[in-house]
Design brief:
Layout: H1 12-25, H2 28-44, H3 50-57
Helix pairs in contact: 1-2, 2-3
Length: 59
């Protein structure tokens, strides 16, 4: 992840996009790590997590 952002915590949108991009690259370990972070951020921001949970189940 890019650490140049002024935010302390990445947003759900950023993490969701990053998780799916990393999964396309085939990096399962990083995909799982980022997807779990995205799920936590989604829950914090009251967003749906269905697609993220599906992504983890497909690993």
């Amino acid at each position: 992840m890019d650490e140049r952002s002024d935010r302390k915590e990445p947003t759900y949108t950023y993490l969701d996009t990053y998780a799916f991009l990393v999964s396309k690259l085939g990096n399962k370990k990083e995909t799982k790590r980022v997807t779990l972070l995205a799920i936590k951020a989604a829950e914090k921001e009251n967003k749906k997590t269905d697609k993220l949970k599906k992504l983890i189940n497909e690993l």
